[in-house]
Request: fold
Amino acid sequence: MTNSGEIAERVRNGQPLDHIPVVDFHCHLGASSEYYYIPRSGPRQVAQHMDRFGIDHAVTFCIDTTSDVAAGNRLQYEATEALPERFSALTMLHAGFPQDWAALLEEGHRRGSRGIKLISQYQGASEHCIDWSPVLEFARDKGWAVLHHQWGSAERLEHWARSFPEVVFVIGHADGLPYAGVVGKYENVYQCTCACFVVGPFATVQGLRAVMPAEKILYGSDALDLDFGTGIGPIALSDLPEREKELILGGNALSVMERLRWPVLSQQ
Reply:
């Protein structure tokens, strides 16, 4: 295993990875979070920035977490309607307002949402006190993925994965070591690499690979909160085989899209 393959060399030389499919499975569109303004955040500007890295497609959701999520969701839908070949939207829900879930999910379904984003940890709610069953029932027959910032205990994630095998579950950040057994056991559970460069709180890409199949790991950047490159670099420069890097950077995401019958596949 070596970090001297074509992917690593292209990254070192500042060249886009346009020789392989690259799909970012953890991306935010929006001009601001609760803490700062994000310039050049329009979908066409973001798509141009993606081209710099060779990113073909991004799965997006709100960057705001504590305000009314409906406005942020609509921004994602508008981006996917304008550039369906570049973006797929997930519908964010607010854990503190379950009375709003049905309307948000119905609107997302009408607007072409490809799944759900959960982030209870930033919304003042205790994850283990939330019943996501109605949400997952809605997602069950729609070819949707559900990405959560943090699923709580491994036992909790396993319960959802076992109860809803039609839904693809994505662990949103690279804290997958506690979830490794669930990822390996259930074909509908995937691990995202998001924040894998933050040593300590999160696992490295090689650390993830040591405890789970390469085929279950998805590249995620956390852009526009972070940058696309902070997610690509640790994968490209890791000591993984070239084929595993290709799978993590995009091949696995395309397999997920094919499994869920997302129409974006025909546009790659």
Summary: Residues 48 and 55 are 10 Å apart (CA to CA). The first helix runs from residue 6 to 12. The chain has one domain: 6-259.
